[in-house]
Amino acid sequence: MLQCIFLLSDSGEVMLEKQLTGHKVDRSICAWFWDQVISQGDSFKQQSVIASPTHYLFQIVREGITFLACTQVEMPPLMGIEFLCRVADVLSDYLEGLNEDVIKDNFIIVYELLDEMIDNGFPLTTESNILREMIAPPNIVSKMLSVVTGSSSNVSDTLPGATASCVPWRTTDIKYANNEVYVDLVEEMDAIINRDGVLVKCEIYGEVQVNSHITGLPDLTLSFTNPSIMDDVRFHPCVRFRPWESHHILSFVPPDGLFKLMSYRVRKLKSTPIYVKPQITSDAGTCRINVMVGIRNDPAKIIDSITVQFQLPSCVLSADLTANHGAVTIFSNKTCTWSIDRIPKDRAPALSGTLMLETGLERLHVFPTFRVGFRIQGVALSGVQLDKLDLRVVPSRLYKGFRALTRSGLYEVRS
Amino acid sequence: MFTQFGATADTLSKASTLMFRIGTDAHLYDDPEDVNIAPLLDSKFDSEKCEALKRLLALIAQGFDVSNFFPQVVKNVASQSLEVKKLVYLYLLHYAEKRPNEALLSINSFQKDLGDTNPLVRAWALRTMAGIRLHVIAPLLLVAVGKCAKDPVVYVRKCAANALPKFHDLRLEEHSSTIEEIVGTLLSDISPGVIGAAASAFTSVCPNNYSLIGRKYRKLCEILPDVEEWGQIVLIGILLRYAIARGGLVKESIMFSLHGRESSHSEKDDSDDDFAFKNDVKYDSDLARTISRCYIEGPDEYLSRSSYANRISLEFNGAKFTSGKSNDEVKILLQCTSPLLWSNNSAVVVAAAGVHWIMAPREEVKRIVKPLLFLLRSSNTSKYVVLCNIQVFARAMPSLFSSHFEDFFVVSSDSYQIKALKLEILCSIATDSSISSIFKEFQDYIRDPDRRFAADAVAAIGLCAQQLPNMASTCLEGLLALTRQDFSTCDSESNNGEAGVLIQAIMSIKSIITQDPPLMKRKLYVHVVIQLVHSLDSIKVPAARATIIWMIGEYRNLGEIIPRILTIVLKYLAWSFTSEALETKLQILNTTVKVLSGAKGEEMLTFRKVGSYVIELAECDLNYDVRDRARFLKKLLQCSLDHGELELDTDCPPKKDLLQVLAECMFRGQAKQLSETMDYRVYLPGSLSQIVLHAAPGYEPLPKPCSIVDHELGTNVIRGVDTLSEKADGTDSSSGSSYEESASDYSSERSMTVSSGDAGSDENSSTREFDNTDPLIQLSDAGDANQNQNEVPQSTSTNLEELMSKRALETWLDEQPGLSNPSTSEQSQLRKSSARISIRDIGSRVKPKSYRLLDPANGNGLKVDYSFSPKISSISPLLVSVQVSFENCTDETISEVTLVDEESSKASDSSESSLSRKDVPTLVPMEEITSLEPGQTAKRIVYVCFHHHLLPLKLALYCNGKKLSVKMRPDIGYFVKPLPIDIEAFTDKESRLPGMFEYTRSFTFIDHIGELNKDNGNNALVKDNFLLVCESLALKMLSNANFSLVSVDMPISAKLDDVSGLCLRFSGEILSNSMPCLITITAEGKCSEPLNVSVKVNCEETVFGLNLLNRIVSFLS
């Protein structure tokens, strides 16, 4: 079981410590940790499980904040990691974002939340709906009130009813004048195009996000026209397994507000909406680079926010890059971003330029990988389609909405 | 360019954050000590207290020690404001262990809060009280937890479950049974939320107490999908362990097939889905066996068995197998965990996948593949851990993942660890059909900017080629191209990465060639070696050069071209020797000698020259390693080197032979690639140990299959008690209940026989035919007074005859001698609704409690224990006999041990007999133990006359001539002796001691609950709960006081669980004045819960009676 949780700022300062069990963990572990971060760099920050000399550490990094949990005994490591993720989610939900300042400013709330979320190293209440009722999030009103009156309590006097309910994710009595449900399909396209320009892998990772504001205890069913194309699925705890097993129907009592109902994957797609063709030739210490971008299969919607990003190899001394469309920026860490936004009708965007190599180096032997970003509103490229959304008891005024969005995920073009 | 603007933006954002920070606790965090905290804490306003506490918390957050405020903070625990309470609790929990004495001050307030009507207050109080971890409050806490475990509010019960591990941390052995009992209660809770927390308590409190799971197993499986995610993770583990401990591994599962290859082969023949198995044949059965054994034994234990052969030969003696198709427990577990593979929590998915991996039939294991792979995309933070688990699965059963190779393609955002894992997995799952795509990927990776990764990719190519020999030539070509390409770029460079790639490429080539004895592809290999030799000129990396040189020596005889170029190569090496790095020099020396030792004919001369040149050079080298090596080789090869000159030396031939043989052994033989060892560690899927690759503290391998046997667990269903029969023809229309005792094949010492009439005597020899005309259920005593105590029923047949004629329900009571059968009709009318039973052989189970008189630590290694013995002294009725056992814990003999009383030791000078003084407790001098050997135990009965003094008796213990003073505590329970009387005499006496001679007290009795639970799990015998309660009460009583059991009356009621009306009677007489002393114990309540027990003492001697009553209450409750 977890023994202690530390919150570290991006400069390694311990902002908060919460001891969970009788076996106190000294903060010196954080010093050790930070020493490792400094000596091993980013790759250390990406390790989720670390065996330190005295403790096992689990870490996640969210927006510069490192959440560090310690244990000395065997426990499922994913439990520690998932719990830290949950803490990060709840905190960023409460504080509307995460950074060093908001955590310090609201440290009391962070303490209270942590105390409620974990008891003796085992998660207690992690459902954000219940937490919100127990500990009021800081908002403008309460802040103003505290300024004016000098006091405010954010701790609720009563136990939220949802703790006893069989749908703990839902507050017991909610009332809305206008009932609304919005269903969004948010898809991310992952693709790998190898050096020969062959599409090695292309798949869609999608999420069904629901934003519901419905009175009472609604029971929703959502069905797809083509559920069979989804390869893998994962569900929010509110989804009942049986209907999905038998008919591929999502039946659920939704939490209030925005939440991720399910995630899915559609694999082995055959094409991508845009193409990116890099060409790199090198000779005698200089290197010519040429990148072409264009639309391959028109999805009949506008593709925007197109960006191409790549890391110049370390052996490149200087780069001179120009584009016939969009802006090219080279950052100090040799990351190069070319933002195109929309592809103009009249010409195909192209980036070209020369790179100067280190002295003594004739030719380039490592090649950058181009990460492509784009966004298409109004279409789910995987082809997943929602069929219908039903409520068992239809409330008086109900508005149902549906949207779709596809953006690039891990879209990589190797050169 | 826009620095100015940037600066403005920066200040703007700062200003906006400042705005944003208004009204938060920012100032408290930044400057917690800008006001004096102490007065604020004592303020009467909650808001000021709050502020002070927040400041303290800020200091805690920043790592300052503010425990000096503890007393002031504790006072505020009684505050009504929940916010203050919460903050105080946060502070308390952080410091309570440091300041235990002050923390005690808060206990009253917690006690009060525990009775609060607000469940939140109750829950918080319980959480904090348990969290402060003080040994002294353990009893209070136990009561509190027990109470909260029955709270109507789910949240409070959940907190109670969470409090149990905290309690367990205190390591209070004496309460462990009660704790386990509460765990059991919570595990059968109706709310899934509570069950999750209870499961977690179970794993930390009593992970091996499978009896708690036994009966609830099915219910727990069914409720699993509704339990909250954290609970699911833990509960899945518990259920898996239980299923294995109960039924063993599944015959159709991977674990089994990995076991014996033969069995998997034989099954394959008659199996329909041949295809799946054909792929499986590929997997390494040794490796697979290792895995399944590691799961069960833990790798440390398994791998420590030294010899590899030993490991294989050892069959799974203990392992038993069950069939997944017929075993319902396995089926339901798989069924209930499979939807969890869709869970949103990656830990749940991995836990569920682990269950399927171990338990599911082989053809169904593949259902875990997609969910696991999906985790790689959908939960980024879990990626590494999931990959580590997949790696093990993929090694053991590559066919599972082989068609999903695309999922392991590396993307640039992966960290190095993830990339390396992916490469490894790709290597192990590569098949002939996928290798070409994988190979293409690897080629891309070689150009990755991360050179360490590129080197790994090169190594992976080598590995793939080794696994799939068809690919070897392609791989070799590619690798060769790489070496050629790389040396053009990395010449000038100090770039480690490049060198790494190059070394790795050559290592890979080497491993491909060495793996396969070069018969098949001789031409190719010759070509490769020659290519490498050619590149020697341009390759500058020492390690790479060394490897190539080694290959020259190794393959000097390969093909036809290599031997021919050897001369040139050797000359080249000799020429470059001085400029080489250390490892290359050593390798050149080796190669030269190798070539030399195998040389023949005209080449010999050249080689010899070159060889002696190189060795001479080496002898003058700066590095001592090289010099040593040179000298050694020189000695070894003296003969062949100096062959020309010393040919005629007479000493040489024998010497030459020996050395030559030695040299040939060392250098001639083709090096054999050591077969890959299986010595890598495998831990349970999803465990921390699997990630860190060593057993983390607390890691438990799976339980031994079938380690719990049926009768231990037994699904105890109470079969008795349910037939309640009204006898119409009975004279008194009283009801009798029939208890049926099954499975009395058990030895007689444990069975309690309460047998019924109607049921007749079927299997139970002690069940007697029983005439319906008299329905009375009656206590009877079969054992003859003076007969052997543990007599088996059959042997008392004469008595039985008699009993049968009296138509009583008989049972056996050996404890009570001299009690004649009291079945009379008046008696039966008195007890209409109760059955009188006897508890057989309780006497043999009575164990008088033992107390420590002298601790070996204080007594120079002499341990002295004493217990009050129920025996009556033959010397004087006033004396209480105490059994004292002396044990020598030292290595030396202890002599002259004796125990006398303090007074007499003083008085011995004045020669005044202490016995003569009337009122002082005295000890009859005991027989001296002349010597006590190490480890020996001597027992002595000493007689003490306590004169009803309850204060500890000071005694002097002499040993080895030294005097040690010790204290013996009198036990009022042994100031009496048993008075065997029958029930009429009892009631008669009782009626003569009314009013002021009668004292009662009541308390709650909980001991039997532990007994009940223990029994649930361990005993297939259908035992009656009532009997258990009676038994535990009687046993407790008799073990602590010297009474005799007169009767046990059991209520007969419709309610199965209600023991109200249970009545036990005990009698005794006071040693000093032979006054009778009667005790009646009655119980009320349900037997699964704490009982309200009242004790009544009837005794003429008031003070003694009251003291006795207190004593009884104290040991019973």
TrEMBL record, chain A:
Gene Ontology, cellular component aspect: clathrin adaptor complex; endomembrane system
CDD domains: AP-3_Mu3_Cterm, AP3_Mu_N
PROSITE patterns membership: CLAT_ADAPTOR_M_1, MHD
InterPro entries in the cross-refs: Adaptor_comp_med_subunit, AP2_Mu_C_sf, Clathrin_mu, Clathrin_mu_CS, Longin-like_dom_sf, MHD
UniProt subcellular location: Endomembrane system
Keyword list, A-Z: Membrane, Protein transport, Transport
Family that this chain belongs to: Belongs to the adaptor complexes medium subunit family.
Official protein name in the record: MHD domain-containing protein
Organism taxonomic ancestry: Eukaryota, Viridiplantae, Streptophyta, Embryophyta, Tracheophyta
UniProtKB/TrEMBL annotation, chain B:
Amino acid composition bias (Low complexity), ranges on this chain: 731-751
Taxonomy, superkingdom: Eukaryota
GO biological process: intracellular protein transport; vesicle-mediated transport
Gene3D superfamilies: Leucine-rich Repeat Variant
Membrane association type: Peripheral membrane protein
Lyase keyword on record: no
Pfam families listed in its UniProt record: Adaptin_N, AP3B1_C, AP3B1_C_2
Keywords (A to Z) from UniProt: Cytoplasmic vesicle, Golgi apparatus, Membrane, Phosphoprotein, Protein transport, Transport
Subcellular location(s) of the protein: Cytoplasmic vesicle, Clathrin-coated vesicle membrane; Golgi apparatus
Predominant subcellular localization, coarse grouping: membrane
Protein name: AP-3 complex subunit beta
Gene source species: Dovyalis caffra
